[in-house]
Amino acid sequence: MNGAESLVRTLVQSGVSVCFANPGTSEMHFVAALDKAPGMRAVLGLFEGVVTGMADGYGRLAGRPAATLLHLGTGLANGLANLHNARRAATPVVNIVGDHTRAHLQFNSPFISDVAAIARPFSDWVHTAESSLTLAADGARAVTAAQGPPGRIATLVVPADAAWNDAEAPATAPPRAAPRPVPESTIERIATQLGSTRHSALLLRGDAATARGVSAAGRIAARTGARLLSERLTPRLQRGAGRVRIEQIPYRVEDALESLRALELLILVSSSPPVSTFAYPGKPSWYLPAGCSLAQLAQPEEDAEQALEALAARLKSPDMPAGLVRLELPDLPRGALDQFTLGACIARHLPEGAILVDEGVTNSPGTFRATETAAPHDYFSNSGGALGQGLPLAAGAAVGAPERKVVCLQADGGAMYSVQSLWTLAREQLDVTVVIISNRAYAILQMELARVGATMGANARALLDLATPELSWTRLAQGMGVEASRADTAEQFDAQFSDAVRRRGPRLIEAMIQPRA
Amino acid sequence: MNGAESLVRTLVQSGVSVCFANPGTSEMHFVAALDKAPGMRAVLGLFEGVVTGMADGYGRLAGRPAATLLHLGTGLANGLANLHNARRAATPVVNIVGDHTRAHLQFNSPFISDVAAIARPFSDWVHTAESSLTLAADGARAVTAAQGPPGRIATLVVPADAAWNDAEAPATAPPRAAPRPVPESTIERIATQLGSTRHSALLLRGDAATARGVSAAGRIAARTGARLLSERLTPRLQRGAGRVRIEQIPYRVEDALESLRALELLILVSSSPPVSTFAYPGKPSWYLPAGCSLAQLAQPEEDAEQALEALAARLKSPDMPAGLVRLELPDLPRGALDQFTLGACIARHLPEGAILVDEGVTNSPGTFRATETAAPHDYFSNSGGALGQGLPLAAGAAVGAPERKVVCLQADGGAMYSVQSLWTLAREQLDVTVVIISNRAYAILQMELARVGATMGANARALLDLATPELSWTRLAQGMGVEASRADTAEQFDAQFSDAVRRRGPRLIEAMIQPRA
Questions:
Q1: What is the ipTM of this complex?
Q2: Which of A56, A124, A452 to mutate to test the interface with B (most CBs of B within 10 A)?
Q3: pLDDT-based confidence at B513, cuts 50/70/90?
Q4: Domains of chain A
Q5: How far apart are CA B58 and CA B52, in angstroms?
Q6: Which among B103, B160, B469 has CB closest to A481?
Q7: What is the pTM of this model?
Q8: Which of residues 430-459 of B touch A (CB under 8 A)?
């Protein structure tokens, strides 16, 4: 067996069973090995940002890493933005990046770049394989590094000769380590703090925002009156009917400050202190009011669910959580399609157990609010701010959970960054309903431009307006083999969306949004 | 005036008059400044790889830099692959990359990444502005760094507060330094070497491969019998009728070695020694035969045209160059569309002074050969091997030379990496005829897979075959506002292509290629 085959077998034996890929010449031995070693599903993306975004969606759901297969430093570069997002979501990902043979690197081939240096700013672990003989062990270490806890980005650079030379046996990574339990003393201390504070809140993220985690948090709230918070950019939130309601910290600095104004104690659960995404002249980045105490119930590598349950027990919380949501579905909205009527339609038909992927940007809130009382679902949002995450995240989640419906709420501007994802939806016949929110603008930037006190001159319009020419999302989708339709009214959208989620397979609906008067 | 305005004015005063952009919140002051300071054209790309690729096409043609405007480390990351290509082409580019304020970087905002570290592997010059007061001077230094000679990638990171705080006057970069003349002694030495060697060749690249450069090289060939060579990946070649014929070193290692087997002396003119793009087991990377001497007539920062003319004069070369090409146009081909019939049609109708951008990959040679005797034109190829360069290169060239027709020969696989370019063609009504070579495969990788001795198993097919589903390029183009048609035969293609090049504005033809029997 050659190095490539030893690596593929190592990955499979270590629990990595999907490889999202966009290979090139230097990866051909790995591609050949995918056919020699059974157990790995190969999924092609026609652009590397699609590949890494799919690995995020898969890993965020599965809690174990997929592999990516990327071509040289430039192929890796194309995937970096979604690796940034995955890293901010603490998603486990193992990147396999092919490189030239070490002997070839002395020559000035135009394809050469410094792969490890390119990987480093977006990876928690980077290693360049020294030899085909150690490649299996390197692969096992990469899996160990990726699976954490919490999930990490591990990048293994594989020179072509390490892939094609002879290797020994494959290796196996040890099973993922269990998250560390939170010490009793921490539970004790935070229970005391909570008992003596009037205005407290828990900020839940990642592993704390599961159904189990929010249920325990709801019990704590029932006992102490603490608010339950999450951030707009949150990797995963289990919500909807039968779950506990979580408040979202608003996006605008002014609104966020107002929302947190009275807070005296904030308890971080797998989260960081809330700050503004961007800084603005004369406005604070730090959201907490002066004098607000901070406590950390669980670090990202600790067991947040167990800590929340232990804290609930320590506080003698009731069994019934506060903020438990009952199923409430809106009536069929009528007339113009805006983010609120759109959200109502989505809430009406969202299937139980669906995964709702949200890169709706300025038009997210309408759906986020309406689905609060919809059927229970997983909510994935853009976690690191780099646009173009929604579509591949949805595709990857659908690969990871073929039995669940994935609904992708995707703004048109952001959709273009990884538009190639639609082809993979068709190729793999993934069960994803894509809702493109077509507002023909970088609306968030028009808002931000107004905030800097500027009016739209000719150049600003040239950079922030997407109306000339209009993108036709039905044509783009059909061009990549995805069935598509266009909705201009709430009634049309409701009918198309309800049809799409009842059937299986990929489907795109272009929702022509009108700004609310 | 704030820092952003001082920077825009500095760029304009320093001769930078186009800004290819995909801005975000941190760049809004720069966007506002584009409307306050006259003289800069703003061109939007819906993905950053389009933005940097356009800057390459513009700079490669104009010989002076365009600016790019990119959003944070992740926006820059999306543009890196085409910066790699631009750097390999020695194209001058000034990247303006917005970042958070320095005060904000202490917080763990999800949008934060290490912008300078991301820029470094693909930039020749990187600087993070310290203050709004020095931003103008930084901008002038960036232009100086970019314009070389030779052209370089300069990346200026602009923290938001450097953009929004008060600034003084703009600055002006000094005019581009003239390329250094090649010393007499070098000319003398190489003339002597050429005089005493039977099998010699000149390898021309970049500034040596202009009409003037190849004409002087042709005179040297007439006198000495030297072969004139270029590489497949070459940033610019002025060729066609009235110019001098240049041989292309073949892509396959075996063919390249055979082609150069007899060589005793290779003279590099703005070029590096020829090597294989990839290494293969048991095959050499170095293309030159044992005992072949190397001489460097011009370094990239030296005046290659002047050196070639001085060498021609020193050798007392005749005025008439060897290999002068006469206009010869093929007859209308009939029947199936393959790379050769396609190339014949393109050659028949290629307008004089056209810019032919080639990312045809496996299907390039048919057009390259047929256009050798076509009307004189500029030929731009992918310079660094990262796919997705063709479409944005064509768009950028069209921005730089609105009076010239641009023809983009683009393979379908590569086209998907920067498919968003089509929207900018429509937005700016650029005069580009795009020929998509639709072979529904990563054909070059199927060839490379066969070279590693593997057959196409299910996983290899899943990664290298693009036929399921088929991409419809007419729909994709129409979805982005570009008029499009599909050609299944040579006659159809000829009619559509001749129509497209006679009219102005963007147009796409999907050429359904059949592999030649």
A1: 0.97
A2: A452
A3: very high
A4: 3-164 (3.40.50.970), 184-314 (3.40.50.1220), 339-512 (3.40.50.970)
A5: 10
A6: B469
A7: 0.98
A8: 444-445, 448-449, 451-454, 457-459
